[in-house]
Amino acid sequence: MQTLQHSRIVTDTQIMVGKPVNRGTRITVESMLRKLAAGWNVEKIIEAHPHLTPDDIHAALAYAADELSNITVSA
User: Fold this and answer.
1) How much is the CA Rg of the chain, to the nearest whole Å?
2) What residues are paired with 22 via a beta bridge?
3) What residue numbers bound the domain in which 32 lies?
């Protein structure tokens, strides 16, 4: 089920080889997560990509969390 936040995230094989991106951009969820992991805050990401909003970044986080929740871990 796609939530409103996930409506901001799209996949298209013609854009970034099908990696999830923010709608209307070529900015991947992976790229935003890596920036956050490197210590960037939301404001710094928006400064680097002014067409993004805080909601876009939060949608990427929600998307990643939902994707991780679908992983099956074996013992």
Assistant:
1) 13
2) 9
3) 5-68
Write out the two tokens for 63: 């998307």
Residue 57 sits in a domain whose CATH number is 1.10.10.10
Contacts of 11 (CB under 8 A, 6+ apart): 18, 19, 20, 21
Domain presence at residue 73: no
**51, burial (CB in 10 Å: exposed 0-12, middle 13-18, buried 19+):** exposed
12 contacts: CB under 8 Å, gap ≥ 6: 18, 21
Gap between the Cα atoms of 41 and 37, Å rounded:
9
- Per residue in 26-56, pLDDT tens? 999 999 999 999 999 999 999 999 999 999 9
End-to-end CA gap in the chain: 28
Single pTM value for the model = 0.84
